[in-house]
From TrEMBL, chain A:
Keywords, sorted A to Z: Membrane, Transmembrane, Transmembrane helix
Domain of life assignment: Bacteria
TM ranges: 12-30, 67-92, 113-140, 160-181, 188-206, 308-326
Signal sequence residues: none
Protein name as it appears in the record: ABC-2 family transporter protein
Organism: Asanoa ishikariensis
UniProtKB/TrEMBL annotation, chain B:
Protein name: ABC-2 type transport system ATP-binding protein
PANTHER family the record matches: ABC TRANSPORTER, ATP-BINDING PROTEIN
Residue intervals of the ABC transporter domain: 6-231
Family, similarity comment: Belongs to the ABC transporter superfamily.
Species of provenance: Asanoa ishikariensis
Length: 331, 296
């Protein structure tokens, strides 16, 4: 059965290996760009903020920047593609072609038939996404540390070990969907829809609950504002900068009594006819504080491990469902 | 091989409200080539899929060679199955199929498989998707026989084949059963497919078994009676009318009788298997359309 699983899986395996090899060549070639640009940061002894900024600007505008965004897209696309093209057809295509009636009448139980397929192709899934994530994470490590953004949602899901868990979840989801729907194309569509919803729900609502967030209310630092806007109705929008090297969840100005500060503006202290800087001075005199909730970079691995555990758990649950369905219902 | 090949007791399969097989009771002795005959949609495939464990019964019990169908590798090894339309992997070669069989069946007979493929003139490197319907059916049969099963189950194996492929397939099947003495159950909606090869027949219509038994016994207990017009009630004692037709002056009956019919007013004739099966098939049709009967 191991041989037969490999025989059926050979073509997609070769295609995937080829794609990974091409990507590896691309990463090796463009690695030089990062090393060259990073030289000024590496040589910097003290007060390196400007050197880092310059490095990032030049990097994003170089060919390396294109590779960076491409790898980001690949990291997010790989798990659902595995779910759609490896997972969904695994059982559905057999049922569509009727070949399950051939396969299940050899002298092996269908439980073993499925276990071999899930085991081998699941291992290939973990290996492919593990290699991919390792290569991309290593390639981008200098950019990530310079930008100090590996814990922010967009980068977080494309680095470290979570992509492996995403891919195993997508794969088992595809297999289970194919078994329930019994048709390949609808199973593929269902896999994509459910996968996207599950992975999008993490940064939107769930990930922040995986580790305790830091909650602080320091005095509002007028020197550290991203924006200060006053509109014609007199509403004031004060936007403090996000916490550096952290994933900022909430970030708003509050009054000494704890309300979110939105104005109204005091026209005698801040208006179009008054000298520039007067609005900043006025807001600074209100005694505002900053209500900020964030996950510091030190929680990166805690969050990676917790999210990996969540998706491995989902993958295991789906595998159990698929075995149960195969034995009890698929007849 | 003394055990009963297939034993069913009140076997029923329902899909929601639709009954696919109702209260089927069977006792098939070993060493038979069993023909399962009935019109399309009668429940033949359901019965065979229950026998290999592809389906589980809604009610009742089925045992095949003393075990529960599909229950573990040992049971699977005892039964060879060629499903309807002989499914094969279109993008895998003949050789890949045989290798799949060799790797998943402990009792696989590679010499038998190779010999059959050579005899059929199949190219081992040919993809199954490029074989003709007859060749695909032969490949599926080769996989089923090379696992050396005690019972071979074939679901409409020749339905999609042209007459020559049909004859070739049946010839191959017969040669195999003669040599290896395995039991065979095969289904068809045509009696002519089964007539020459079977020694046991099961007639299935409208999801019910109408008659089942050794063909010799059935032929020896069914007769066509022709005589002056009369009612079925006036037949000799022990004769059960299966089918009757009347003209103005004459009545013809097909009857089942365990004792020879000795009535000088009736002409007694032997039946062909086709006559016998058709009589049972039309009886179930008549039972379902009483208005048609009265209109005659």
């Amino acid at each position: 059965m191991i041989w037969f699983t490999w025989r059926q899986f050979r073509t997609p395996a070769v295609v995937t290996a080829g794609a990974l090899a091409m990507l590896a060549v691309g990463l090796l070639v463009s690695r030089g760009t990062i090393t060259d640009l990073y030289a000024s940061v590496a040589a910097c002894q003290s007060d390196c903020g400007n050197a880092v900024e310059a490095f990032l600007t030049r990097f994003y505008n170089s060919a390396g920047g294109t590779v960076y965004y491409t790898t980001l897209a690949i990291m997010y696309a790989a798990p659902p593609l595995i779910g759609i093209f490896w997972g969904a057809p695994l059982v559905a295509r057999e049922i569509e072609a009727g070949t399950h009636r051939l396969a299940w009448n050899q002298s092996i139980t269908r439980t073993r038939w499925l276990a071999t397929k899930l085991g081998l192709i699941g291992a290939a899934t973990a290996a492919a996404t593990g290699l991919l994530s390792w290569a991309v994470t290593a390639w981008a490590s200098r950019v990530d540390s310079a930008a100090a953004d590996r814990i922010t949602p967009l980068v977080f899901g494309a680095r470290g070990i979570v992509p492996i868990a995403y891919a195993l979840f997508a794969f088992t989801l595809g297999v289970t969907a194919g078994m329930l729907v019994r048709r390949t194309v609808p199973a593929m569509a269902g896999t994509l829809a459910v996968y996207t919803a599950a992975v999008a729900a993490m940064p939107l609502w769930l990930r922040t609950h995986l580790a305790p967030a830091t909650h602080e209310t320091p005095a509002l630092d007028m020197g550290n504002l991203d924006a200060l806007m006053i509109d014609r109705s007199g509403a004031v929008a004060v936007e403090p900068n996000d916490v550096t090297n952290a994933w900022t969840i909430t970030n708003q100005p509050i009054t000494p009594t704890g309300q979110v500060f939105t104005g109204p503006v005091d026209p005698t202290r801040c208006g179009p006819d008054l000298p520039s800087g007067s609005c900043t001075e006025w807001v600074g005199s209100l005694g505002l504080r900053q209500n900020v909730v964030y996950h510091p970079d030190s929680q990166y691995w805690t969050l990676q491990l917790a999210e990996t555990a969540v998706f491995l758990g989902l993958a295991a649950a789906l595998a159990i469902v698929s075995f149960w369905w195969l034995r009890r219902r698929l007849s | 091989m003394t055990e009963v090949v297939l034993q069913a007791d009140g076997l029923t399969k329902r899909y929601g409200r639709r009954v696919a097989l109702a209260d089927c009771t069977l006792d098939i002795p070993p060493g038979r080539v069993v023909g399962l005959v009935g019109p399309n949609g009668a429940g033949k495939t359901t019965l065979l899929q229950l026998a290999v464990g592809m389906l589980t019964p809604t009610a009742g019990r089925i045992t095949v060679l003393g075990g529960r169908p599909g229950d573990g590798p040992a049971q699977l090894a005892k039964v060879g199955f060629v499903a309807q339309d002989a499914p094969t992997y279109a993008n895998l070669s003949v050789k890949d199929h045989l290798r799949f069989g060799a790797r998943t069946n402990p009792s696989w007979d590679q010499a038998l498989a190779d010999a059959r493929i050579a005899e059929l003139g199949l190219d081992p490197s040919q993809k199954a998707g490029r074989l003709s319907g007859g060749q695909r059916a032969q490949l599926a049969l080769t996989m089923a026989v090379a696992k050396r099963p005690e019972l071979l189950i074939l679901d409409e194996p020749v339905a999609s084949l042209d007459p020559i492929a049909r004859r070739e397939f049946m010839r191959g099947l017969m040669a195999h059963t003669a040599e290896h003495r395995s039991s065979v159950i095969l289904s068809s909606h045509l009696v002519s497919d089964l007539e020459r090869v079977c020694d046991y027949v099961i007639v299935l219509t409208d999801s019910r078994v109408r008659v089942a038994g050794d063909i010799d016994e059935l032929m020896g207990s069914h007769y066509r009676l022709t005589g002056a017009r009369r009612d079925a009630a006036d037949l000799p004692a022990g004769a059960e009318a299966i089918e009757h037709s009347h003209t103005e002056r004459q009545s013809t009956f097909i009857v089942r009788s365990l004792v020879p019919v000795e009535d000088p007013s009736l002409t007694v004739e032997q039946l062909t298997l086709e006559d016998l099966v058709l009589a049972y098939l039309s009886r179930s049709v008549a039972a379902h359309r009483p208005e048609l009967e009265t209109a005659r």
